[in-house]
Amino acid sequence: MPLETGRNSGFDTTDGYRIARQDYELGEVDLEPDEAAAVALASRLWDTPGLAGAAHGAVLKLRAAGVEVDEAGAGPVQPRVRAAEPAFGPLLAAVQTGRVVSFPHRRGGPTGEVTERTVEPWGVVSARGRWYLVGHDRDRDDVRSFRLSRIAGPVTAVSPAGTVSVPPGVDLLAVIDGAVGPPPVIGTAHLWVAAGRAHGLRRLGRMLRPLRRADREGDELEIELRSLGTVARWIAGYGPDVTVLHPPELAYAVRRGWAAVAAAHASSPDLEADPVDDRIRV
């Protein structure tokens, strides 16, 4: 902010200092009604004390500029992003100051191996109801994401401020999607689903036409195929209420799963999977 020296009037006897408003003041803020509603929604997003204070302060500044923001209004959407993980605050501070951090991280579930990681933090983002740190993992020399709930100890800053620089154009959510997002679609599967059954599959798919099979009423359903093994396990759990019509490799995977279950529960299994029929013959 540039300082000016001078006198306000000819009656002043000494020079003074002042900051001209036009040198630092923001331009006029003019939000459309839907934009103001989005700001109000964002201000209600944070329910942790530190972030709630920052959001409230931003709303006050907008109101001071003449923008009407209904911060307390009740709308059809009431978002909440909870940041209860102890690592949230230190990581957010490290991102803002550009400092390298070190922390113990647990791989997999509660009994997973804990290793010390040194990371150049680029951002803390929320995806699929969880918080993640995205940055450059110095130990792996690669871009990685870390779920905050798996950080198993204190976060320690190990570099001066300004050490970390975020690459231009980096998409933090894209990094998360690449690490924890669903696999790509590799095809489609056509299933026969008995009437009134397999509602979970019905929600995932698209009903093509009513189809009667083996004296049972049902529907032909089309679903996206991302992982052959995962979809086969879903279908196998529905037993005779779901039949694979296409592709044949999915039908074989379902039969193989049934055979494994039958063998695990039989003392002397003698199973043969029929390559044509989608049932197991004992």
Secondary structure layout:
Blueprint: E1 4-6, E2 16-18, H1 21-24, H2 33-43, H3 49-64, H4 88-97, E3 101-106, E4 114-127, E5 130-137, E6 142-147, E7 156-157, H5 172-180, E8 187-194, H6 199-204, E9 206-210, E10 218-225, H7 228-236, E11 242-246, H8 248-265, E12 272-273, E13 280-281
Antiparallel strand pairs: 1-2, 3-4, 3-7, 4-5, 5-6, 8-10, 8-11, 9-10, 12-13
Number of helices, where a helix is a run of at least 4 consecutive DSSP H or I residues:
8
Helix content: 25-40%
Strand content: 25-35%
Describe the strand arrangement of the main beta sheet, using strand numbers. 6-5-4-3-7
Q: In total, how many beta strands?
A: 13
Shape: elongated
The main pleated sheet reads as:
5 strands, antiparallel
Report on this model:
The relative contact order is 0.07. Residues 271-282 have low confidence and may be disordered. The protein is built from 8 helices and 13 strands. It has 282 residues and is of the alpha+beta class. The protein has a 5-stranded antiparallel sheet with strand order 6-5-4-3-7. The radius of gyration is 30 Å and the shape is elongated. It folds into 3 domains: 25-81, no CATH class; 88-180, SH3 type barrels, CATH 2.30.30; 187-281, no CATH class. The longest helix is centred in the C-terminal third of the chain and has 18 residues, at 248-265.
